[in-house]
């Protein structure tokens, strides 16, 4: 299956990588019930999406996202771009200011108020960012809506509470999961490179020789990219597929138990 990153390959990495990182952060924080960080990421997400829409319409992308002086007005100006898909001209530009407003003027941004709205607002942030991501994938990769949503769901599903994070430590919360499954889930749950010794600590596995043998096998299968010195690694697309399949199996088992 095409990965979300591949589906968004038309977007320069200076915007695509921050977009994926922010979306992953939102879905991970939501899954871990960290409502305030989840909402705060929504504002950054809006700025990145605006930069993508503006660059797409202009035919030239900014090297990195930046905050417009007047965000609502900047989004309104996107409606003048009659040569782009309607969702890039009307739907997303009108949704972004609402999402941005949650960041600035609700409980997430300021203290006060009679009722804590953080959970409710975080739910809206997640739904809106998920829809925007699916629409970006659909338009840039010319995919049917169902396939575009499946790609985005695969990206988000790796952030379900299979993994706990506290400080620099991460743990797979299912102790029955096999070592190879834990490795793939842990590597897939973190964007960018991971230090091998950190990964070993996260699994709590005591046999380092067997652990490294497993990593070399994954490298040979192209599930991960293990550095030449075997000190760092990162997930590869086939590994992402394996992670998604593990999550699907875990969800199916959990569903049968309910």
Care to describe what's here?
By secondary structure, the chain is mainly alpha-helical. The radius of gyration is 20 Å and the shape is elongated. A hairpin with a 5-residue loop joins strand 4 (224-226) and strand 5. The chain starts with a helix and ends with a helix. The longest helix has 24 residues, at 35-58. The strands form two sheets. Strands 3-5-4 form a three-stranded antiparallel beta sheet. Strands 1-2 form a two-stranded antiparallel ribbon. Mean pLDDT is 82; it is low at 108-116. 63% of the residues lie in helices and 7% in strands. It has two domains: 4-157; 163-257, Winged helix-like DNA-binding domain superfamily/Winged helix DNA-binding domain (Arc Repressor Mutant, subunit A). The chain has helices at residues 4-7, 13-31, 35-58, 71-77, 86-105, 118-141, 145-157, 179-188, 196-203, 208-220, 237-257, and strands at residues 163-166, 169-172, 194-195, 224-226, 232-235. Helix 2 packs antiparallel against helix 6 and helix 4 runs antiparallel to helix 5 (86-105).
């Amino acid at each position: 299956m095409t990965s979300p990153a591949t589906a968004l390959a038309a977007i320069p990495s200076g915007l695509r990588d921050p977009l994926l990182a922010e979306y992953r952060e939102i879905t991970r924080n939501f899954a871990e019930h960290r409502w305030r960080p989840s909402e705060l990421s929504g504002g950054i997400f809006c700025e990145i999406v605006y930069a993508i829409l503006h660059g797409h319409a202009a035919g030239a992308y900014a090297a990195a996202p930046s905050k417009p002086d007047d965000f609502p007005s900047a989004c309104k100006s996107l409606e003048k771009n009659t040569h782009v898909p309607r969702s890039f001209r009307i739907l997303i530009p009108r949704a972004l200011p609402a999402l941005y407003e949650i960041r600035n003027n609700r409980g997430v941004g300021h203290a006060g108020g009679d009722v804590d709205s953080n959970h409710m607002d975080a739910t809206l942030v997640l739904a809106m960012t998920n829809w925007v991501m699916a629409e970006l994938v659909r338009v840039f990769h010319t995919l049917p809506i169902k396939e575009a949503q499946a790609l985005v769901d695969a990206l988000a599903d790796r952030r379900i509470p299979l993994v706990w994070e506290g400080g620099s430590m991460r743990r797979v919360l299912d102790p029955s999961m096999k070592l190879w499954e834990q490795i793939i889930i842990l590597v897939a749950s973190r964007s960018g490179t991971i230090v091998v010794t950190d990964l070993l600590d996260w699994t709590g596995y005591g046999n380092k020789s067997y652990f490294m043998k497993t990593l070399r096998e994954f490298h040979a299968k192209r599930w991960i990219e293990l550095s030449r010195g075997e000190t760092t690694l990162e997930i590869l697309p086939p590994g992402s597929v394996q992670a998604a399949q593990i999550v699907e199996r875990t969800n199916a088992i959990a569903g049968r138990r309910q």
